[in-house]
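Weekly structure sync - notes
Attendees: PM, LS, DV (DV joined late)
Agenda: review two folding runs queued last week.

Item 1: First target. Sequence and structure tokens pasted below for the record.
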Amino acid sequence: MIGTLLNGRFRLDERLGSGGMSTVYRAFDETLERWVAIKLLHREMSGEADQLERFRREARAVARLSSPNVVGVIDAGEDDGHPYIVFECVDGETLKERIRRLGRLPVDEAIAYAIEIGRALAAAHASRLVHRDVKPQNVLVNLEGRAKVTDFGIARSLEADGLTLTGRVLGTTDYVSPEQALGHSVTEQSDIYSLGVVLFEMLTGDVPYKADTQVGVAMKHVREPLPNVQVRRPEVSSTLAAVVEHATAKETRNRYRTIDDMVHDLEQALAIEAARSGHTSTGEATSVLRHLPPDSSDYAPARLRRPARWLATAMLIGAVAAAALVVLASRTEQGTTGGADRGPGGLSPVTLAAANDYDPAGDDEEAADEVAQAIDDNRTTFWSTEGYRGGLAKPGVGIYVDAGDPVAARRLSVVSPEPGFTAEVYAADEVPNEIGGWTRVGGPTEVGETARIRLDTGGREFRNYLVWITRLPAGQSRASISEITLLR
């Protein structure tokens, strides 16, 4: 077929790949003088009514999608018994090729690609279209680094019956949802499961299940829990691990209800990853970070959200700091330097031994791997609660600091990148199993960007001080704390 001119317009130039139904070619559009991709239905398939209708339906379905993360349809037609679809030409590589070439992708890059795939699926689901074959082979990464979803060949409209036989398993078994593996009804949540598996592969460099047969792999998706992503990739945060776990729940009632919910949590995970990593994201992660919605972007460092404003601010801070150094040098020469900073009002900071999460009314874990970031003297890193849609739905969650030795603290300061939550402060020597075992010594207080909570211990000394969060910020699903300082 190389060299064939379809309908006097599209000249087939190079074979890009082939499947059971069709072959894809790079072609030149001689009318508009541009490169395109042509999907050509195999001649033997064009005589089968159901296969021909499925092929035409793909063209109609994708043509009505509007998303920068979907490979767009340009045209469709038929030439001498050869039905074809014309797509935009995406120069680059498939996500599968990228994983094979690089192995485990950088964490922020993996999240960014998952977000872009999720946005493509959101556009499809908004049009009542389920992809049903989400896999890295069907994601193209262009030369600019953007991910684009393609191959809606087995996609199914939720508004009409599908063309497949009842009980037939569609999709690639490495990424197939449990309900697909069992031949049950397929919904948007099936795409969510497959995207969760793709994210797992991007983070670990491999698919979660292996078996001697494809049926064996499919049954593992039904019966076996997904391997712990943090065991295979320890630097993955608990926030991101929770997204993977939620997306790949076996039962649909335990899975993300919509792809929008998953994308929302991925966006916050990316912002948190950018803040906790301490290094500047590159490539597509940076692009996605700069276009996050407001409720997620506040988690990201300002240098990534608003680079021009951050640069100007950094230059101003640098100038002020330089002037301050001149003044300090002058004062030192005059012998006027004072002693160590004693804190506000003569209070002195307590050197904290550790920080720990506290969730007695839940699963006894609340982002345990991030607690150290609340006492690391770095305001760009932080600890966050888990995500809670619609509020906490329990008395509270928290984080407590260990003073090492009992102290009669008089103030606790909190710095938050996500102000607006309500907190109380409790104290105890030995950590109780429930909140009723603590002694309340401060609050309730609505925490702003900085909150200084006066403590009243009645003169008693306590070793542990708990920030107990009872209400999340308005319209938010979590609360975050950058720094906790205890003063006596």
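Item 2: Second target, run right after the first with the same settings.
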Amino acid sequence: MPNLIITNIRPHGGAETSITIKSGRIAAIGGPAEPGLKVFDGHGLLAIPGLVEAHAHLDKTLYGMPWYVNKVGPALLDKIDNERASKRTLGIDAHRQSARQVALTVGHGTTHIRTHVDVDTECGVTSIEGVMATKAAHADHVDMQIVAFPQSGLLRRPGTLELMDTAMRLGADAVGGIDPCSMDRDPKGHLDAVFGLAQRHGKGVDIHLHEPGEMGAFSMDLIIERAKALGMRGQSVVISHAFCLGMPDVAAVDRLLADLAAAEIAILTLGTPSRPVPPLLRARAAGVVVGTGSDGIRDTWGPYGDADILERAKILGMRNNLRHDTEVEQALDVCTHGGAKMMGISDYGIAIGKPADLVLLPGSCLTEAVVSRPVDRITFKRGRITARNGAAAFQVP
């Protein structure tokens, strides 16, 4: 691990100072340089903690492959069924493609990734194995968590539950679920299976909840009830998307937010332009931990996305009408500390003793950095430079 001092940087947009790094961790903030330390001059750049990609689908991206002409839709199941077939016809190799997206993501300043990886009766656990190989190969560049994800449903395709158990035994970090009512049409059975796997393997859960309005609120109530009954607290339960929290019934949403906070269940929001989304400031004010991510990028679902989490802060700000600098800073915090808390990572942040996972970037303040999204960033992972100017410092296939 390198020992160095980064001088003339402004942590969180504050006064210029220095950060001393020893054995990959922050040993001091401020103070004189010790003799013999390598000096890296930050030239007045901002310093923020490494960005956190808390919701990706690394096994699905077509990044680096020939352009895919999308004619699929409009229903969710249309996209799911097409994607399952396309994995074979397009030759989507989970290890190759996940490595490509890791390089792209790290190039933009990300130091932590949570990815949902498909498990189904056609691909089995091959995608899990492919992404696990990527996780091992790039352990020095990014910390990764893998969620075993039954994208095509857990109960509607017999054999999936057994494959999910295999994925957990292979080393997946959390159990995924999806739309207990509208996908499997058996909310009790679906949640019995998801939470049963989590209890058996001692892992958390992360459930995709696209269901809108009252249906989504009903599923969310069941998830909260189950988590409380099993004593699963401290962000070991995450609800991703949570579109039902964007419904217009303010009283109902505030009640759900209070229940989520009391149960210590985190939510993941993308600020999705096409759907109602959780109210960011109200959720945080209620005490709910909120993270964010890119979701799928450049895949059979859609052509958009470049895995830049700083752009996601901007999207969250625009989607939630955040205009004051202090509000935009909250959106950025969702992309750093919020995602880390959502993933259960306590060893994080710009503080003495924490891993030296940093992004240096230009800007007079944090809000300017969010809205301008400068390309010329420098990313450190445990004190080593992993990316400069939008490009990872390592090669992938």
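Discussion on item 2: The first helix runs from residue 76 to 89.
Action: LS to circulate a short write-up before next sync.
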